[in-house]
Design brief:
The model has no long low-confidence stretch (mean pLDDT 92). A 7-stranded mixed sheet has the order 4-12-11-10-9-5-6, with helices on both faces. Strands 3-15-16-14-13 form a 5-stranded mixed sheet. Strands 1-2 form a two-stranded antiparallel sheet. Helix 1 packs parallel to helix 3, helix 14 packs parallel to helix 16 and helix 15 packs across helix 16. The longest helix has 23 residues. The protein is of the alpha/beta class. It is built from 16 helices and 16 strands. It is globular. It has 3 domains: 62 residues; 258 residues, Aspartate Aminotransferase, domain 2; 92 residues, Aspartate Aminotransferase, domain 1 (Alpha-Beta Complex), CATH 3.90.1150. Helices cover 42% and strands 15% of the residues.
Length: 458
């Protein structure tokens, strides 16, 4: 056990490291290689003790000298921004206190904080007074929760008998939806064949195609169970026609879940909330504060219109642990032992309030058009419709498919920025996305200039 002096030195050294880690405004966006990182880890001698200075120095080098610095303002890759400083500090404090949120009796204050945050987020989505939900480890856990809720409500006797004797449940989403849905369907016994990837119209789920698929499955004695709309697709930032999908699901008595892991941040601002028109009609919604709200990775939220379904899906009785008159978190979600994840949102809100977080979202959305303009000005062909979120997919029109990746390699090796590689309609493409609240118009302009250089020099 660390003495007071050892703890003080650990914290002092950690604070020094934070100055390097937390404000990634300069320096290389990416560094090192997987092979180099693997060698460094393999060569680390774990049989000897080190001083706090040497231990923290080694970890800091590992974090800064290998891999992509997703917290850099010119990281234009995947949606993992620099955490809000208050969110990171909150997580540190929680690590020391280590509260257990399985039951209210163990941690009444933290449980109430998360209940309050879930309530306020549900209100911003317009889900009504009976809404509820929970914090999760991310969008996959939230989507898994939606799947279980849909099965409980859509498959007779599921909570007791599972899928035994039931018609095969079917899940529907667009071809631009997230692959985690297929993984979850397999993990929950539905099988890959019962996930229907449907065509899109302007990269948004085609409602006529959805209606036809539902009719086909009913005719084949299958059970349409869950429709997953996407609010903010990975490649195009597209938002499915939420109101139309909700109307069809209500008519067909199918659970409608909106995967708003990325686009859900639009709910925070009156300026961007109209982009989510129809989300208020969903049965459930997932969003990831670690994508657009500056929480550290591993911060998700599941929201549901009728909170009663949570106990139908997850309530169990146990003979140990302090109980309470109100439903405990472990009986209303997939998780049992629970970290105080909500602190990552609570402390930034105490510091800035909802208007402060909304302003951050608005700054990111304001870069949508400039991003497209700079990429196009650099000579690239833009792919897909104009995005509602700050992302663009593109190709170099003068290169073959197998040479598109050279652009991304040039950008990465420069250390000045980072973009992602993807596939659009089965062909290699490039993708740039504004991920950080720190990114400003000068960073977008710098990316455009770097892309132009890449076309000339790679």
């Amino acid at each position: 056990m660390a003495s007071d002096d050892e703890l003080a030195e650990l914290l002092a050294r950690a604070l020094d490291a934070v100055e390097t880690l937390a404000v990634a405004r300069t320096g290389r966006v990416s560094a090192g290689s997987p092979g180099r990182a693997a060698r460094r880890v393999a060569e680390t001698d774990l049989s000897r003790a080190r001083t706090p200075r040497h231990a923290i120095s080694g970890l800091t080098r590992l974090l800064t000298e290998s891999g992509v610095r997703t917290n850099h303002r010119r990281h234009f890759g995947w949606m993992n921004p620099r955490p809000h400083p208050a969110a990171a500090v909150a997580d540190l404090l929680v690590s020391f206190a280590n509260p257990q949120l399985a039951t209210r009796a163990l941690s009444p204050g933290p449980v109430e904080v998360e209940r309050r945050l879930v309530s306020e987020l549900a209100a911003r989505m317009g889900l009504g007074e009976r809404a509820g939900g929970s914090f999760t480890g991310g969008g996959s856990e939230a989507n898994a929760t939606a799947l279980v809720c849909a099965l409980v409500r859509g498959v007779p006797g599921f909570a007791e008998g599972g899928l035994a004797g039931a018609k095969p449940p079917v899940v529907y989403l667009s071809e631009e939806g997230h692959d985690s849905v297929e993984k979850l369907a397999r993990a929950h016994g539905l099988g890959r064949r019962h996930v229907r990837w449907l065509p899109t119209d302007a990269r948004r789920l085609s409602v006529p195609a959805l209606a036809r698929a539902i009719d086909e499955d009913r005719a084949a004695d299958r059970a349409p169970t869950l429709v997953v709309s996407t609010a903010g697709t990975t490649n195009f930032g597209a938002i499915d026609p939420l109101a139309e999908v909700a109307a069809l699901c209500a008519e067909q008595k199918i659970w409608h879940h909106v995967d708003a892991a990325w686009g859900g941040m639009a709910a925070l601002s009156a300026r961007t909330r109209p982009l989510l028109a129809g989300v208020e009609l969903a049965d459930s919604v997932s969003l990831d504060p670690h994508k657009g709200l500056g929480a550290p990775l591993g911060t998700g939220v599941f929201l549901v219109r009728d909170a009663a379904v949570l106990e139908e899906a997850f309530d169990v009785q146990n003979d140990y642990g302090p109980g309470s008159s109100a439903p405990d978190p472990f009986a209303r979600s997939l998780a049992w032992s629970r970290r105080f994840v909500g602190a990552r949102l609570w402390l930034p809100l105490l510091q800035e309030g909802w208007p402060g977080l909304a302003a951050r979202v608005e700054r990111m959305f304001a870069l949508t058009a400039p991003l497209r303009h700079e990429v196009e000005r650099a000579g690239f062909t833009l792919l897909g419709p104009e995005a509602t979120l700050p992302v663009v997919c593109f190709r170099d029109p003068d290169r073959a498919d197998d040479a598109q990746g050279a652009i991304a390699r040039f950008v990465e090796q420069s250390g000045e920025a980072w973009i992602a590689r993807t596939r659009v309609d089965g062909r290699p493409a490039l993708r740039a996305c504004v991920c950080s609240h720190d990114t400003d118009p000068s960073d977008v302009e710098a990316l455009g200039a770097l892309l132009a250089r890449a076309r000339r020099e790679s």
